[in-house]
Amino acid sequence: MLYLILAILASFCISVLVKLNETRGVNTRVVIASNYMTASALGWGFSLHAGLTDISLPTFLLGLGGGFLWPGGFYLLMWGIRRFGMSLAGAACRLSLSVPVLFALIFLNERLDIANSLGLIATFVALYLFSPIRRGQIRQVDLRSLLLLPVLALWFGVADLWVNLFNHWGPGDEKFLFLTLVFTFSLPFSWTVVFMSGIKPDREAVGKGLVLGVPNFFTSYFLLETLRSPTFFHQSAVAYTLFSVAGVSLAFGAGVLIWREAVSRSHIMGFMLALAAITLLNR
User: Fold this and answer.
1) What burial letters (b/e) apply to 217-238, b meaning 16+ CB within 10 Å?
2) With contact defined as beta carbons under 8 Å apart, do 124 and 277 qualify?
3) What does the buried/exposed string (b/e) look like for 95-111 if buried means 16 or more CB atoms within 10 Å of the residue's CB?
4) What is the pLDDT of residues 5-58, one digit of tens each?
5) Are 214 and 42 within 8 A, CB to CB?
6) Which of 36, 144, 171, 256 is the most buried (most CB within 10 A)?
């Protein structure tokens, strides 16, 4: 449970840093690209310290896939927001949790008891209430928007699932190498997007990205350790759900307390359901 708490806190730090960058108008693409510099450097440091030099084929392939999936989803989301609005992002993020959960239930033969099942249902309802789709938010629906929503949800869901794939099919002693390769392959991919977009990196954006890379690395590391722990090795669906609902609840609380964001009735209901979900999932 300790690793899960640390993963949630590290993810919360990412949310706070991203919010701070948004309020200051820092170029997000440069921040994301720069964060992989720190994350990959941390990974190589831990790998070399542990004496890891040989990379197996499963670790290399999973690292390569993650290096494409993780930043690729972000850029796809940015395009979708510009084209179809923020409501698409909220819907995709809500639906993406179903991918690692369904994978665990169908392919890993995990089972949920009644309390966990109710907690899972409460989580999806809470995630919706935190960001409900209101009238006027959705732009004119066309075929591309209908196709992009499931693509985004599947993309983010598979990216979240990727850590668990290594957990089950990758060599356990190469966990640092796996994360290192993911961030290392993400680095040239994300910087290519920056330069192809004609963006000139500035010192402030690069610096904030370097800071963001620290919690980004440790979020993935602690989540991997959570899924490898005896508590959640056969309960990854519960781990992913707890990670998601607790992270959203912390981000909501920070938005209200720090940035004085408006609170609606649906937000309060969502927060109460989130607390109920956390309680049920911990039974």
Assistant:
1) bbbbbbbbbbbbeeebbebbbb
2) no
3) bbbebbbebbeeeeebe
4) 999 999 999 888 887 877 777 888 899 999 999 999 999 999 888 887 788 999
5) yes
6) 36
